[in-house]
Amino acid sequence: MADAPIKFKITIDESFRAAQLGFLKGSNPSAYKRLMTFATVNAGRTYTKPMKAAAPRGKTGNLVRGVKVKSGRYQRPSAVVGPLLGGARKPYYRWFVTQGRSGSRTTKLGVVAVKPVAPRPFVSQVAENATNEQRAIDAYYRTVEAFYNDNIFKGRILRFRRGKR
């Protein structure tokens, strides 16, 4: 009788991945922060294409080209997506497009009537879309999974370790 081949499939439990992340957070907190920030920015990158498609186009197109992703400044890990200031194309008027303007304006002489502008909240509409949200969540988890499966990526995250080794 010939030996029959044995076939099996290995699946990793979610609690095991959570334990691995917890171990990384405890043993190397700076690498954990770097990984979470990188995963959050990758998740934010999935919003740029639909946000550029939804942005109103003017003569220059600076508002569309100004849609970018950057790491959050205060509460990390976080990412900021939208028409951001910076670079050669500065959509300084972004608040005017997304929030609009009321029909009255207060000056030194009193209240003056101006032409109202309706807001176009394309940033919040894209952010609240369920399919875009799910794609961002998938990108986040793919980045965390790549940390455990791709040794080159893992080496880049773990490269800058300070202190005693």
Task: Describe the fold and architecture.
- With 165 residues, the protein is mostly helical.
- The protein has one domain (23-148).
- The chain has helices at residues 14-27, 29-45, 48-54, 62-65, 94-99, 122-127, 130-149, 151-158; strands at 67-71, 79-83, 104-107, 110-113.
- A hairpin with a 2-residue loop joins β3 and β4 (110-113).
- It starts with 13 loop residues before the first helix and ends in a 7-residue tail after the last helix.
Quick rundown:
By secondary structure, the chain is mainly alpha-helical. Helix content is 50%, strand content 11%. The protein contains 8 helices and 4 strands.
Write the layout of secondary structure elements.
Elements lengths: L13 H14 L1 H17 L2 H7 L7 H4 L1 E5 L7 E5 L10 H6 L4 E4 L2 E4 L8 H6 L2 H20 L1 H8 L7
Antiparallel strand pairs: 1-2, 3-4
Which features does this protein show?
elongated, two-stranded antiparallel sheet, 165 residues, two-stranded antiparallel ribbon
- Portion of residues in helices? 40-55%
Overall structural domain count: 1
The number of helical segments is 8
**Assembly category:** single chain
Q: Report mean pLDDT, rounded to a whole number.
A: 81
Using the alpha-carbon principal axes, give the shape: elongated
> What is the chain-wise order of helices and strands?
HHHHEEHEEHHH
Structural class: mainly alpha
Radius of gyration: 23 Å
Distance between the termini: 55 Å
Strand element count: 4
Strand content: 5-15%
Widest beta sheet: strand line-up = 1-2
